[in-house]
Specification:
Blueprint (H helix, E strand, L loop, with lengths): L1 H6 L3 H26 L28 H4 L12 H19 L2 H14 L3
Helix pairs in contact: 2-4
Length: 118
C-alpha cells in the first residue's frame, strides 16, 4: 500500500501511513507487554475473587479482577529496557521498509523462488 501511494505520486500519504503505524505501536505494545510480561496467575486465585462491581466487565468481555483494581504508585512500573528496544526497532523497521520496501520484496521473492512458490 505504501509502495502504491509513493508510485502514484502520493508520497505524503505513504509518510502518513508509516507515522500512523508507529503511533499505533503506542497502543498495541503495552497490550502485548501486559500479556507476555506479567506474572503467572496463582492457582485457585479465581475462587476467592470478589464479585463484580457495578462498572466491572465480566471475564468473557475482557474484564478481570486485576484490571478492576487501581494500582498504587509503588505498583506502577516504568517500561523495561527490552520493551523500549523492541518498540524502537519495530518503529525503525516500519519506517525503513515503508519508505524503501524493495529490499523486503526482493527477500520475499527470493525465498518464494527457493521454495518453488514463485
Amino acid at each position: 500500500m505504501i509502495d502504491a501511494a509513493v508510485s502514484g505520486s502520493y508520497t505524503w500519504l505513504g509518510v502518513v501511513i508509516v507515522i500512523g503505524s508507529m503511533i499505533s505501536l503506542g497502543y498495541y505494545l503495552p497490550v502485548v507487554a501486559a500479556m507476555w510480561m506479567r506474572e503467572a496467575p496463582v492457582a485457585g486465585a479465581h475462587e476467592d475473587a470478589p464479585a463484580l462491581s457495578a462498572g466491572a466487565l465480566p471475564a468473557l468481555a475482557g474484564g478481570s479482577p486485576e484490571l478492576d483494581e487501581q494500582p498504587s504508585a509503588a505498583q506502577v512500573k516504568s517500561p523495561q529496557p527490552e520493551v523500549i528496544f523492541v518498540a524502537v526497532l519495530a518503529g525503525a523497521a516500519t519506517l525503513f521498509f515503508g519508505i524503501l520496501p524493495s529490499p523486503l520484496f526482493n527477500l520475499v521473492h527470493g525465498a518464494g523462488s527457493a521454495l518453488g512458490l514463485f
